[in-house]
Amino acid sequence: MNKNNFAPLPPMGWNSYDYYDTTVTEDAVKANADYMAAHLKEFGWEYIVVDIEWYAIGAGSMRNQFQYIPFADVAMDEFSRLQPDPARFPSSADGTGFTHLADYIHSLGLKFGIHIMRGIPRTAAHNHCKIKGSNVTADMVANPSSICGWNPDMYGVRDTEAGQAYYDSLMELYASWGVDFIKCDDICNTNIYPANPYSARHEIEMLAKAIARCGRPIVLSLSPGPALIEHAWHYETYANMWRITDDFWDKWDLLKDMFHRCELWQNHVAKGCYPDCDMLPLGWLGKGFGHEWYTNFTPEEQHTMLTLWCLFGSPLMLGCELTKLDDATLALLTNRDVLSMLTPDCKPHQVCLDDEKAIWCAYNAVTDEHFAAFFNLSDETQTIHCDIETLHVDDEPCAHKDASLTELWSKEKTSVSGSAISVTPPAHGCLVFRVEN
Amino acid sequence: MNKNNFAPLPPMGWNSYDYYDTTVTEDAVKANADYMAAHLKEFGWEYIVVDIEWYAIGAGSMRNQFQYIPFADVAMDEFSRLQPDPARFPSSADGTGFTHLADYIHSLGLKFGIHIMRGIPRTAAHNHCKIKGSNVTADMVANPSSICGWNPDMYGVRDTEAGQAYYDSLMELYASWGVDFIKCDDICNTNIYPANPYSARHEIEMLAKAIARCGRPIVLSLSPGPALIEHAWHYETYANMWRITDDFWDKWDLLKDMFHRCELWQNHVAKGCYPDCDMLPLGWLGKGFGHEWYTNFTPEEQHTMLTLWCLFGSPLMLGCELTKLDDATLALLTNRDVLSMLTPDCKPHQVCLDDEKAIWCAYNAVTDEHFAAFFNLSDETQTIHCDIETLHVDDEPCAHKDASLTELWSKEKTSVSGSAISVTPPAHGCLVFRVEN
Amino acid sequence: MNKNNFAPLPPMGWNSYDYYDTTVTEDAVKANADYMAAHLKEFGWEYIVVDIEWYAIGAGSMRNQFQYIPFADVAMDEFSRLQPDPARFPSSADGTGFTHLADYIHSLGLKFGIHIMRGIPRTAAHNHCKIKGSNVTADMVANPSSICGWNPDMYGVRDTEAGQAYYDSLMELYASWGVDFIKCDDICNTNIYPANPYSARHEIEMLAKAIARCGRPIVLSLSPGPALIEHAWHYETYANMWRITDDFWDKWDLLKDMFHRCELWQNHVAKGCYPDCDMLPLGWLGKGFGHEWYTNFTPEEQHTMLTLWCLFGSPLMLGCELTKLDDATLALLTNRDVLSMLTPDCKPHQVCLDDEKAIWCAYNAVTDEHFAAFFNLSDETQTIHCDIETLHVDDEPCAHKDASLTELWSKEKTSVSGSAISVTPPAHGCLVFRVEN
Amino acid sequence: MNKNNFAPLPPMGWNSYDYYDTTVTEDAVKANADYMAAHLKEFGWEYIVVDIEWYAIGAGSMRNQFQYIPFADVAMDEFSRLQPDPARFPSSADGTGFTHLADYIHSLGLKFGIHIMRGIPRTAAHNHCKIKGSNVTADMVANPSSICGWNPDMYGVRDTEAGQAYYDSLMELYASWGVDFIKCDDICNTNIYPANPYSARHEIEMLAKAIARCGRPIVLSLSPGPALIEHAWHYETYANMWRITDDFWDKWDLLKDMFHRCELWQNHVAKGCYPDCDMLPLGWLGKGFGHEWYTNFTPEEQHTMLTLWCLFGSPLMLGCELTKLDDATLALLTNRDVLSMLTPDCKPHQVCLDDEKAIWCAYNAVTDEHFAAFFNLSDETQTIHCDIETLHVDDEPCAHKDASLTELWSKEKTSVSGSAISVTPPAHGCLVFRVEN
C-alpha cells in the first residue's frame, strides 16, 4: 500500500465544521451528501467529512461558555475508542459506529471521512480503560503532559508498543466502519508548545503505520497549521494533506496572506502529497457558532480564492451548508476549466509576489496545457504588465508571441501583445488564462 | 495581615525532597524534626517542610518508570482537597489531615510546612467533585488547558469566583491543620508555556487572597524558577519567597551560575520578600531517587554556598537527611557569625563578578556591622586584590585604612593593607570577613 | 573619586535635542542657559547639555533626506578627537573647543554637558589618524564591525590598550574644556545587534576608567534605551544614568508605558545611580526637525509625567526651548513640593499597576516625609480606592488612620477616611499627596 | 537572457579560498587552471574562481591579527570599482583588470569566476568617489548602516537609481574582463542582522538586473548561508546558486549536518537553480590560513560527501590545491558513474533520515536511470535494510524485485533480495547503486 495512491488528485469535498461547529448530525450529513451527489459529484467533488466532537454527548449545549465542554461525557467503547454520539447519529445506536452512515455515503458514490483529535481520551486514561490487543491499560498509554491547547478531550499517545496497539485498534475500527478519510487534529503544528511545535511527530508515524496495517486506503489529513516547512519531508512521507495555515475564514487579510504560504510550499505538491490551504468559507456559514452568515468574500475574492487553490494544488473542502447553496456559488464550484488545473500533473510556478500583485503560471505536461494567472492584491483596479519571458515552469516557456489567451472565469479571449501580457483585474480579483501557443 | 510580617527573616528549615523524593513518611518527618529541635533550632532553623506527593497512594512504587505515576489514586476529601496518604502518614487516618503531625512539630517549637501543586486535582475535575462554599463543581473550576509540564496531578484553576472559593477552602483547611508554610509548585515560572511563562499569575493572587482570608500567617513560597525579573514587583506584592533558579543540586556549575542569579536579584531582598536560591544539597541525599549519596560539594564549595546564600539573603532549606548529619556539616550550619548576615537589615552589594571571582560586601545599619566576601570561582588558588574604595553599600564605605578583618569561617584575623585588601581563597572557595574600622 | 558622588541628586537640566535636533548653536545654548540661570536655577535645575552633531559641518542641511548626513565633513583635531563646528560654535574657532562656552555656563552658576557617540570617528580610522598617547593609529583602534544602526559617524573602539588611550585622551580633552556631564549615545542598548544588545559593555568600562583618570567629576549618562535589566549591576557600577526607554516623546501611549519601565527599575534608584526616563517633551519642540510644535501632552498628562519622574527618581532633562517657556509650564517645573520628592533619600514603592491605574507611595527617611500618588491611566475620570494597609515602603507604613493629606499640585487638603483613601483623578491625570500622620 | 540557461548543470570547478585564503596570486590561479584543463576538464570540471580579497593591497600580511585588514589600501578605479592587486595579479598592471587572466583561462577551454563582496567600497564612500553613468557620488550610494559583520571592505548599496547604476557599471566591467561566474558574498544570509537576515534582498535583484543588462551570461552564486527557505522563491528567480550552509569544512559533524540541509532543500533543485552545499574540502588545504593540512575526511567520508552532493544536485567546487592532488582524490573526482547523477534531469528523493542513517533514491527520466544510496551516519559498521516499496521518486518506483544493483564506487554487483535491499556500509561511509530493473 503506497499512501500516495490513496488520493491521486487533491481531495475535493465537504466538511461540517464551518457551518455546524460541534453540532453536526446524521441528518445534516446525509442532506449535504445528497446535494453533493446530485449537483457536484460529476465535477470531482466526492468527500463528505464529519468534523469535530461527533463523540461528545451534549456538544454545543454550553456554546456561550465553551466551544468544547471540558470533562463532559463522551461515547466510548470498552477499548478506549470513541463512538458517535447516538443522540446525534442515531444509526450508531446499534453499536456499529459510523457503519450505516458510511454505507449511505458510499451508496451515493461518495467517500466518507471523519475528524479525530490526536491521542487517547483523557477519560480512558483516568479510568484505566482497556486497549485492544494489549495488556497495558490507557493510563500507561496516555502521556499526561501531552495535551491540546484548545480542546480538552485527549492526551497524546506515548511512543510505545502499547501506544501503537491503540492506534492500530483505532484504524482497524475505522476501516470496519468504511472510513475513507481521516482529518487528524492537534498533530500538524502543536502550537501549545512553542519550543517544540512538532512534538507529535511520532504519532504521525504511528497513524501511518496503523493505516498501512488496516488494509484500507484511508487518506490522512493533518491539522492545524501552519505546517513547518523544515519538516516537509516528514509530512510527505507519512501523510496525504497537511494544513499550511491557521484556521482560514472569509477575511481578505487571510486570503492575501495565503499567497505567502503558497509561495513557501509551491515545490511541495505531488501526487498523494498536498499542502492544504484549508476549507473554502463560501455560501452560508456559522450556524453552529451561533450566528449564521453569508460569506464575507466578494465575488472577486471568491475567484481569487478558487483560482489560487486550484493552481497551487490545494485540496478543496467546502465549509458551507450545501443545501443552501446559491447559483453563483454553485457556478463557482463547477467551472470545469478552473478545476482542470487541480492535478499534480499541472505544475505551478509563482512568477512574482509583492504587496500589490501576484503572478503564477502552470504547465500540465500530460495534456500540454499552459495557464497564467494575474492576481490584483491591491484595493484598486490595476493594470498588470508581464513580460512573457518571465513566465515559465522550469525550462518550459508558458507563452509565445501571439499566443491566444482564454480567461477561464469569463471565457473572454485576448492575446499576447508583443512580448508582454497586459491585464486589468479588479481589486482583490484575478484573471486566469489558458494559453494557446 | 501584612504578609511581610509572616517571615521577618529569610526562612531556615528542612525540606524532604532532596533525600526522600516522593516517598517521605510521617516517621521520617518526625525524626528530622527531632534532630532540628535538638541541634539546630537554637541557631535559627525552624521550618519542617513535607515536599511533593504526600497525597499520592503508592508514590515511589514505579520509580524506574515514573517519578510521578500518572492517573494514580490520591487521597482526597469530598471537596476536591487532597489529603495525606494514610499509609505513609498514619496519624491522618482519622480524617484530620496533617493536624497531628503539625501539632508534634509545633510541640518541638518548630514550624510546619507543606508542598502543593498549583491547581485542583485532575481526578476531581473528571469526576465533577464538589467545591466547598460553591455550587459549582470541579469540572467548571479546572482549566483543562492549564497543566504542569512534569507532574500529572493537577489542572490550573480558572480566575473565577468559584476558583477563588476553591483556594479559600484549601487555605481554610491548611490553617485548621496548623500549616505555617506553603511551597506552591508549578506557579513561579510555568516553563511548559515558553510563550507565556507567567500564565499562573492570577493563581498567585488567589492564593495570597485566600491566605489573608484564612487568618493564619502562612508563608507563601513559589516554585520552580527561574523567577522572571520583569515580574519582580508581582512576586514581592503577593509572596514571601520565589525561586530564582531551576532545581539546584550539588554541582559546581550550578553553584557558580548562582552568582549571576544573585547579581540579578540583589536589589530585591527585603523583609518578607526573599528571592530563593533553592535548597542546600548537603550531607546525605537522594535515597528516594534510588541511589543515596553524600553531597558532591567540596568543603570549599560548601563555604562558598553558605556564604553566598547568607550574604545575599536567600532562605536556607536543608535538603539532607538530618539524622545522618556529620560533624563537619553541622558545624557549617551552626556558624553564628555567618548566619548573622542572614537578615534584611544586612544589605548586600555585589562589587564585581567575572568568570574568575566575585566580591560582595554588606552593611547592617542596625548593628553597624560591615562584611566583605571574596569568592574564588576559578579552578586554581588565586590571590584577589581589591581596592577598598570599591567596597561600599550605597553611600556607606565598607572598610577604612587599617581596618581589621576577621574571617568568619576560620576566625583568623588580618587587616587592610594600604588602601587594598589582598586575600587568597582556595579554588571554588571563599573568605568572608567582618570588617572592624 | 567615587562616581556616585558626582551627582548626589538626579540631574536636572536642559538638553538641546528635542527642539534643535542637529542644528544647535552657541547662541541658542547661551540663551537657554541665561533663562535657566534667571528662572530655574533656584529650583535645582543646573545642567545645560549640547546634544548630537555639534562637530558636524553642515549638520541639518539635508534634513529632508538625512537626519545624519553620511560621510560628511566633521571638525576633528590631529588626535582623532571631534571638535565643535566653528560655524555654529564660533568661540571654538581658536582651537579651544567648548572651553569658552563652558566658562560662560559656569559663570552663570550652571554645569555644562555634551553628547557624544560611542567610538572613534570613521573618518579617523579610514585616514589612519593619530591617537594621543599611543603609537597605534585610529585604523587599529576602530572596530569596523561595530557601528551604530542609525548614525554614520563612528566605529566602536576595540578593548585594547590603544583603545583605552583614545578614551583617556578624549576625557582629558573634555576635562580641559570644563565638561561636567557626558551623554554617551549608542552604548546602553546597541539595538542594531539584537543577538548582542550589550555589545559595547567594554566601552562603558573604558569610559568610566578614563573619567576616573581625568580627575574631573564628569557625570556619565548612557543612551539609548531600553537598558537591559539583567545588566543593572553593570550600569550601576560604571555610570550615573542609563536610559530605560526608547526615545520618549509627547504621546500618551509612551507615557503610559513608562509606568511599566518604572515598575521594572524601581529598586535600582540610589545616590549616583539613576534609571533615566528620558527628556521631558514640554513647551515648544521640534524646530530642528522642521516643524515646531507645542507639546501634545495635556495639563493632566504633564502632572502625571512630572509626578512619576520625581517619585521614581528619574533625572529631569527639559527638551523645550526655554526662551519660549509659558507660565503654566514654568509653574510645572518650579513646584517645590513635587521636586522635593526627587532625591534618593525618598524611597519609592509601586503599590499597584494595572491597565486603569497606578498607585505609588514613597518615604524619605531623612526628613520623615511620606508621599502617596494616584494615577488615572484610563480615558475617563475615575475614583480610586486604596486600603492604607497596602501603602508602605518596606516596613514603614505610609498613612495612619486620620492622617491628613495635602495634594502637591493643587495644595488642597483631604484626609484618610476610615482605613482607606478615595480620590478621583481626571483622565490621564494624577493626585499626589504629602501624608501627615 | 533567461538566467536558468547560464548553467544548465550544477557548476563544477575550483575555488581559491580553502587553500589560499586571501593570498591567491595569478600564478597560482594559472597553475590550478592548467591542472584542471589537463586532468579534470573532460569530466565536467570547468570553473576557475578567484576568491576573496583579490583587490586588497597587502592581503594576508597581518594574518596573525586579522584575516581582513581593516581600512587598508585597495586597488580601485576612478568609478569606485575594485581592481586586482597588481602585486599579486601582475597582468592587471596595464589597467585591464582580469582580462588577461580570463583570456588565459578561456584559452584552456575553462570558465573564469571571481568573488565579490556585496556593496561599494567604504573608501569610495568616504572619499566621495564617482559612479559611472551617474551624477551622484559614492557617499550617496553607500548605506552607512549596512555592513558585513566579518569583512570591513564595503557598505551596502541603497535601492536607488544611482545604486543600480553602480551595479550596472560593475557588471559592465566584469563582462568586459570576460568574467563567467560571480560569487557574491554577504548577501544570501546577512547574519549580522539576526532580526533581518534577508536585508540585502534588493541588492540581489539589482545584481540580477545588472547581469541581464551587461549581455554576458554570468552565473550568479550567493553566499554565505544558511539560505532562508522562506525566501526560496526569491533565490530561484534571481540567482543560480545559493549557499544552504555556513562555511563547510572537513569535519564529520558538518558533513552529517548537511543531510538535514539537503532534506530541507531537496525540492528546490532545478535547471539554473542550485542550492549549494559549499566547497569540497579535499586534498591539501589551508596554506593561506597559516597551516597547510591534508583533509581530515576519511576515504569513507569522502565517498559520502561526493555521493550526497551529486545525488542532491549541489554545485561542486574544489577547495584544494590542484597541483598537489593525489591519485586517490583524483579518482574520487573523476568517477563518471557518480558524476552522472549530477544533473537536474536526475530527480532525487530522500527516503529516510535519522541519526543513524540516510537513504536517498533518484530517477533520471531522460536516461531512465534509477539510483539508490545508503549512508551510514553512525560510528559503527551497520547493515541497513530497506523495503523497495519505500524507494520511489514521485510515482516512479525505483527498484523491482530481482533488480540488479551496481555499486558506483566499487563497481561491485548485488541484487534486490525478496522485496528488500540489505547493505552494509562502513561507519560514515555509503553505498550508492545504479538499479537495473
TrEMBL record, chains A, B, C, D:
Pfam family, one: Melibiase_C
Catalyzed chemical reaction(s): Hydrolysis of terminal, non-reducing alpha-D-galactose residues in alpha-D-galactosides, including galactose oligosaccharides, galactomannans and galactolipids
GO biological process per UniProt: carbohydrate metabolic process
Enzyme class: hydrolase
Xref: CDD domains: GH27
EC nos: 3.2.1.22
Keywords: Disulfide bond, Glycosidase, Hydrolase, Signal
Official protein name in the record: Alpha-galactosidase
SUPFAM superfamilies: (Trans)glycosidases, Glycosyl hydrolase domain
GO molecular function per UniProt: alpha-galactosidase activity
Gene that encodes it: agaA_1
Residues of the Alpha galactosidase C-terminal domain: 356-435
Family: Belongs to the glycosyl hydrolase 27 family.
Keyword Nucleotide-binding: no
Keyword Cytoplasm: no
InterPro entries (alphabetical): Aldolase_TIM (IPR013785), GH (IPR017853), Glyco_hydro_27 (IPR002241), Glyco_hydro_b (IPR013780), Melibiase_C (IPR041233)
Entry superkingdom: Bacteria
Gene3D superfamilies per UniProt: Aldolase class I, Golgi alpha-mannosidase II
